[in-house]
Amino acid sequence: MIYWEDVTLDSPSESTASYLLTAENIKGFAAEWDPFPPHVDEAAAAKSPIGQLFAAGVHLLSIAIRLSHTIVHEETASIAGRGWDRLRFHRPGVAGDELRVRVTHIDRQPGSRPERGLLVSRFELFNQRGETLVSFDNNVVMLRRDAVAA
To answer: Which of 99-130 are b and which e, b meaning 16 or more Cβ less than 10 Å from the residue's Cβ?
Structure first.
């Protein structure tokens, strides 16, 4: 079990799986969750500044979270998520992009209770060219080993 104080900072890990964006999965996700015309209609997308069909931001976020679960690690003493900071959409995800995620633990702070700590992890979703599409900092509450042992 990995507790708050066991987490190594500034050591990136990448997903073992990737996700291929296709016109079909872009349209399918958007039809249900974000039916903005350039996400569901190729003619509308062609008239957009992107010039082609592109994935909804919430679709890319979902892919990043899903891929993060393929990063190999021991079980963690995570309790709950506290929110995301610094969410940025850097570039669009388009059909043909093969996506992976990189997670780097960047900060650790004491929690609101002595048995808890806050871990901040940077998530970066990137394509086959290494270009970042989405990034955000994920805040997770974890148990502290010292408090559990006391």
So the answer is: bbbbbbbeebeebeeebbbbbbbbbbbbbeee
Tens-binned pLDDT, residue by residue, of the chain (150 aa): 999 999 999 999 999 999 999 999 999 999 999 999 999 999 999 999 999 999 999 999 999 999 999 998 888 999 999 999 999 999 999 999 999 999 999 999 998 899 999 999 999 999 999 999 999 999 999 999 876 554
Is the dihedral angle over the CA atoms 139, 132, 53, 27 positive or is it negative?
A: negative
Class of domain 4-149: alpha beta
| Angle at 98 (CA atoms; ends 29, 131), nearest 5 degrees | 105
Q: List the domain boundaries for the chain.
A: 4-149
CB 64 within 8 A of CB 101: yes
pTM of the model: 0.93
Q: Which amino acid is at 103?
A: V
Q: Which of 20, 21, 76 is nearest to 54 (CA)?
A: 21
